[in-house]
């Protein structure tokens, strides 16, 4: 089968942006068209990954606005929402549009505009994805993270410091990402002494509220060859859910959606966890990087923290994780994050990651919605 | 190529429902599983068509909730939003998931819960899909409809009564649809004497605000044969946009999205407009049935109104349109409508449409988002 390729990508500056969602989407979309050297009238399907433009700024129908703003009409458009993993779901939708033969050239733009709302308001919009009974009791995603972090540290005898080291590593990586929201190193003491948010997690264990957008251009591998030598193929992709009623999970330190979505992706790509050279994980909270690195099969259960302690996941380690800076330092504009993960892997695999460059032929992106409620895993290979 | 088939379908009672969105989705989902004789653990992809559960009731992440409520985990889920054509976009997403090989068994559930909000509030949520500049000037979809109806009547010398006859026909059809919100005949005088909403359109030219849900089960044709003889295949499907800046359109009486999406669908199915035996059109406003019936190629431009006057589109006419009662009498729960259109065509093609049954082997559903901003057209054939 003709595999699906990515031939161009972009991301905007992440951070506090003086631009509305449709402006952010258009900015990334135009840049990706330029990067792929594709004209807007070649785009047949145009997907937008976005969780909540209606809730955040009272604007819906943004894919249609984007088709207008990019002069891509009459390209077919739709919005793909899978809460915080909308970006990964958009990658899956774009992949399906090409793999099914419905579209010869598909663009995905993911974005979110959030910083004009207070942190409490934004957290409440995000919390609306939780089960109504849990929501009613005041549970938000940060509080789930705190409970799970405590359980993980106790169960696997991991030191609190190991969580802090995730933040330190990812901030260090973000220093070399010109698009990152925070380009500043932090030391372990700063992380450990920052204000408590949800015990044992502190401010620096959390990603920020962010505005931003990212875009990708997809086509079949045979079409890709007509455009560029610098393309990557998606060799494996899968999605899966876990119960959104977190208190029903047998073991909250295992993310079933990560296990199941990566099983599908590995099987499709005919690859094993050991084959992965670089990965972008969904470190919305530091604890999530441990859980995903284990549930993806990179490390044994309960040993993800040791890999961070030993530098295995550093940029110069055996398996660099979150070379982009991760959600932690790059920022987390909900609908953009999964797209920006794939942007980073694409850049690494075509050797265009600048100061962040690592030696990699095979990369993986894992995008998590809710508290592991729905997950997409994408495996890419350089050519 | 193995075509994509529909092997089961359901729709809930449409109208004012004492149930939240996740209850409505689960109700239709369970019924479609039963209709298809498929167990929840066979579902690999589960899509939800929904425009605005966050805006209407502060609940997001509904696909994940549905996977839980149907015991379909770890099925992959995502929400597909294309405003009022979210249902048609969901059909396209489900088609792509099977056609790409990503999923062997896909369920789509479309739904919306709206009636707990006032008509003004609901209209405002819907109007948030318009261009910000048009929105700022108070333009809502009903006002676009009024302006376009006036232009159509003047341009094509059509009598005001012809619009009223769309309402009369569709109410008559809805009388035999047990799921319809309004099961009552209306006469032309009632329509023409109803209160003005957006001149020349009156109350009975508009579809109501509605709660409801509908569901479909998709698989490849070869898999379908293992389950049932009563399946239909999707032989053509396409989607397209038109500018959402309605005042920029060269001719607002032509819906470019309908023209372009149906061109794709006809070509894929290798069919002509004349081949269609029955159609469900998006009669959110009576004028839209004229425009679509022309832009789909059923009638010459400016002559759609004559077809209604002459009874061509009656249930016993040459080309029955909206045998379900249409959005006009059946109701218009945004995310459900495009799914319910396909439900009706499915029922007609397998000969299970009860008192609404017509003689048909090939059917078409046209689902319109915004004021023609984005459109999907689906062509189905009986086996």
TrEMBL record, chains A, B:
One of its GO terms (biological process) is isoprenoid biosynthetic process. The keyword Transferase applies. One of its GO terms (molecular function) is acetyl-CoA C-acyltransferase activity. InterPro entries: Thiolase, Thiolase-like, Thiolase_C_2, Thiolase_N. Keywords: Acyltransferase, Isoprene biosynthesis, Transferase. Residues 238-381 form the Thiolase C-terminal domain. This is 3-ketoacyl-CoA thiolase. It comes from Haloferax mediterranei (strain ATCC 33500 / DSM 1411 / JCM 8866 / NBRC 14739 / NCIMB 2177 / R-4). The lineage of its organism: Archaea, Methanobacteriati, Methanobacteriota, Stenosarchaea group, Halobacteria.
